[in-house]
Write a structure and sequence with these properties.
With 612 residues, the chain is of the alpha+beta class. The protein has 22 helices and 13 strands.
C-alpha cells in the first residue's frame, strides 16, 4: 500500500490500492499453557523473520540500486521502494520490530521508554528517545559480547532454546526502518485496550464499591433509557454483564457513559474519564493544526496526572497506555489517525483470508487462496479501468467543495395556519413569526405542506455524501437538532451553546411554504432548549439544558439553519431518572458538534464558590 493514495481510495478493497504479497506462517502452541512461554515467543520471531528474509530477497536489488519505472508523465525515473508504515496491534508490532535482547527493558517497538514508565503517557517518544535501525543494530552487537552469531546460536541450542533473531529489516537500510514505520492503532489502543480492558472494568468496580450492586443496576437501567443514535449500539438490557464486546460496543459505552455515572462515582473519576474522551476525540480528527496537536499534548499531560484515581485500583503500567503519547508524532508524520490503524486491515483480512479460505476445498488451501485473491484483484482492476474510460468512477471525482443540502421528505398532509390552536404556546403568534421571513405574498391562502422528516446531505473533503435524518416521531427524545442563529429572525439576544452561535431545539413540525416567485421555502417549528447556568452544570463535558415552555420558547427557523442532529441523553440526576424534562446534549456523539462546542469547555464546570 502506498502512502500518497487518497484515504478514501486506500480504505476500499476494490480500489487496487493494496496488494496481497504473501501469507506469513503462524506458530501455534501445542498446549494452552505454552501460549506465553519464552521459547514459543522466540521461536515465533525466528520463523517470522526467516519468512520475511525470503520475501525481501526478491526485491533486494531494487532496494539497493533502485528500479527504472515510467512515471505517469511519461518520464523514466528510478524508483526506490521503502517501508512507509506498519499497521498492527501491539503483539504484531513487537513480533516484527522488538526482537533484541533489550525488549524486556524497553518493550515499546518505537522508542526507549523503560518498562516501569509505560503509564507516563504525558511524555512522548522523543522524550525517551526513538528506536532506529542503527541504534538497535549497535545494541544487538553489544549483546553479542564480541561473539559470532553462530557461537550464540550454538550456546542456545545446547540449552534447548531458540536464540534472539536478527531483524529481517535491519540489512535493508534506513528506508526500511521498522521502528520508524510502526504506527499506533486507535482501535486496539484507545477503545478496546485502555478503555475496554482497563478503565471500564475499574469504573464498574468503583460504582459497586461506592453504591453496591444497586449502583450497577442503576447504570444498566439508565443505559436502557438512552435513545437510539446512529453509530451507537443501544443496550436495552444494560451494559454491566456484557461479554465479547467489539470496538463499536466499547465506543458506544464510552461516549454515553458520563451522563449515566456522574452521580455514582467520585468527582476525580468523572474528570479523568472526560479528559480521556477529549483525547479520543482529538485523535479521531481527520485533519489537524499545530493548535489541535498542542491541545492533544496538553490533554495527555492532564490525563497522566488524573490517572492516579485509577492507579489506586489497578496497575496502569502497560504498553498501550504509552501508545497514547505516540499519536502526535504519528499524526505529524502520516496524517490523521484514519490514515493508519488496523480497522481497514481487519476488512482486508476478511477478504484475503477468511473468505478466500472458504472458497477452497481445504486441501492445499494456500495455493487456492492465492489464485482466488489474484483473480479478484484482476476483476477489480478491470472494473476500475472500464469505469475510468467512461468517466463513471465516483472515487476520482474532483472539483470545488460541495455545500450542504437540506430537504424535507415523507410528506404527511397539509394544514392551514388559522386551524392551529392559538391557545397552545407552540402555535401562539405562528403567522406573525412566519411572515418575518417574507417580503412577498404567501400563496395558497395559508395552506402549508407538512413533512415528517428532514434530510441533511453534507459532503466530506472528497465530496462524498454524508446523509443524516431528523424525524418527528412519538418518541420525544429522538428528534433534536442543532441550529445556527445567523438565519433566524429575529436573531436571539443571548449567546448559544458555550458562547457560540449554535442553539439546541426540538422540532415539532417540518413544513414547506409556497411563496410567489420562490417555489417552496422550508421551515421548522422548534421548541428551544436553554443551557443551564454554569453553576448548575457538572463535570461530564455534556451540556445540561431545559425546555423553554413560554410563548418565546417556540420559534420558526429556516430548515437551512439546521446544522446537525443532536444526541440527547436524559438528565438522570434530577431525582426522577430523567423525568423532569431536562436533558444532556452529548457533544461526543458527533465530531462536528464536539469541535464546535465541546472543545470550548477547556475546564470542568465549577460552582460559584469555586469560581470566586
Amino acid at each position: 500500500m502506498t502512502g500518497n493514495i487518497k484515504k478514501s481510495l486506500r480504505k476500499k478493497l476494490n480500489s487496487c490500492s493494496s496488494i496481497l504479497v504473501t501469507y506469513l506462517p503462524i506458530v501455534s502452541p501445542m498446549k494452552k499453557s505454552d501460549v506465553n512461554s519464552p521459547f514459543l515467543t522466540a521461536y515465533r520471531r525466528a520463523v517470522t523473520h526467516s519468512a520475511l528474509e525470503l520475501i525481501m530477497f526478491d526485491i533486494e536489488d531494487w532496494i539497493k540500486d533502485g528500479a527504472d519505472l515510467i512515471s505517469p508523465d511519461g518520464r523514466l525515473r528510478k524508483f526506490f521502494p521503502c517501508l512507509f508504515n506498519f499497521n498492527g496491534d501491539y503483539p504484531e508490532q513487537t513480533l516484527f520490530s522488538t526482537v533484541s535482547p533489550l525488549c524486556k527493558s524497553f518493550p515499546m517497538p518505537c522508542c526507549l521508554v523503560p518498562a516501569d514508565c509505560l503509564s507516563e503517557c504525558g511524555k512522548s517518544c522523543l522524550f525517551w528517545g526513538v528506536k532506529t535501525t542503527e541504534t538497535m543494530t549497535r545494541s544487538f552487537q553489544r549483546c553479542m559480547a564480541k561473539r559470532s552469531f553462530s557461537e550464540v546460536v550454538q550456546s542456545f541450542a545446547v540449552n534447548g532454546q531458540v536464540p534472539f533473531v536478527r531483524n529481517a529489516f535491519y540489512d535493508l537500510g534506513p528506508r526500511f526502518c521498522i521502528h520508524s514505520a510502526v504506527t499506533p492503532d486507535p482501535m486496539h489502543a484507545i477503545y478496546i485496550g485502555i478503555f475496554g480492558y482497563h478503565l471500564w472494568g475499574v469504573t464498574k468496580g468503583i460504582i459497586r464499591e461506592v453504591n453496591g450492586d444497586a449502583g450497577v443496576d442503576t447504570v444498566d437501567s439508565r443505559f436502557a433509557l438512552v435513545p437510539n443514535y446512529p453509530g451507537f449500539n443501544h443496550y436495552s438490557k444494560g451494559v454491566s454483564s456484557l461479554s465479547q464486546l467489539t470496538k463499536k460496543d466499547f465506543k458506544s459505552i464510552m461516549m454515553q457513559l458520563l451522563p449515566c455515572v456522574v452521580d455514582l462515582v467520585p468527582r476525580e473519576v468523572t474528570i479523568c474519564l472526560r479528559t480521556f474522551l477529549d483525547i479520543a476525540m482529538l485523535v479521531s480528527n481527520t485533519s489537524h493544526t499545530c493548535a489541535s496537536l498542542d491541545s492533544l499534548e496538553g490533554k495527555l499531560v492532564e490525563f497522566d496526572g488524573q490517572l492516579d484515581v485509577f492507579r489506586r485500583e489497578k496497575d496502569m503500567n502497560f504498553p498501550k497506555m504509552h501508545t497514547l503519547s505516540c499519536f502526535r508524532r504519528a499524526i505529524t508524520r502520516f496524517g490523521g489517525s484514519d490514515s493508519f490503524g488496523t480497522e481497514h486491515m481487519e476488512a482486508t483480512q476478511q477478504f484475503n483470508v477468511v473468505k478466500a479460505y472458504a472458497r477452497t476445498n481445504h486441501k492445499n488451501s494456500e495455493e487456492q487462496m492465492i489464485r482466488h485473491v489474484t483473480r479478484m484483484d484482476k476483476v477489480f482492476a478491470i472494473r476500475r479501468l472500464l469505469a475510468g474510460d467512461f468517466g463513471a468512477n465516483p472515487d476520482e471525482a474532483s472539483g470545488p467543495q460541495k455545500e450542504k443540502v437540506v430537504s424535507l421528505v415523507s410528506a404527511v398532509s397539509g394544514f392551514y395556519m388559522w386551524n392551529l390552536d392559538s391557545h397552545l404556546p407552540a402555535y401562539r403568534g405562528f403567522e406573525q413569526k412566519l411572515k418575518r421571513y417574507f417580503t412577498s405574498r404567501i400563496l395558497s391562502d395559508g395552506l402549508l405542506l407538512q413533512y415528517q422528516t428532514l434530510k441533511l446531505v453534507d459532503y466530506d473533503e472528497d465530496n462524498r455524501e454524508v446523509v443524516d435524518f431528523i424525524r418527528i416521531t412519538a418518541k420525544s427524545q429522538n428528534s433534536f437538532c442543532i441550529y445556527r442563529s445567523l438565519l433566524v429572525k429575529p436573531p436571539p439576544m443571548e449567546l448559544g451553546l458555550a458562547g457560540t452561535t449554535l442553539f439546541l431545539g426540538k422540532p415539532l413540525r417540518f413544513f414547506a411554504v409556497p411563496v410567489e416567485g420562490n417555489g417552496n421555502m422550508l421551515f421548522a417549528l422548534v421548541q428551544r432548549y436553554k443551557e443551564l447556568p454554569t453553576a448548575s452544570q457538572n463535570e461530564t463535558g455534556c451540556f445540561i439544558l431545559k425546555p423553554v415552555t413560554t410563548a418565546g420558547g417556540f420559534i420558526i427557523i429556516p430548515a437551512a439553519a439546521i446544522e446537525a442532529r443532536g444526541h440527547m441523553v436524559p438528565y438522570f440526576q434530577d431525582g426522577q431518572e430523567g423525568g423532569s424534562g431536562q436533558v444532556y446534549l452529548n457533544p461526543y456523539a458527533e465530531k462536528y458538534i464536539w469541535a464546535s462546542i465541546g472543545s470550548s469547555q477547556d475546564a470542568p464546570h465549577l460552582s460559584d464558590s469555586e469560581e470566586e
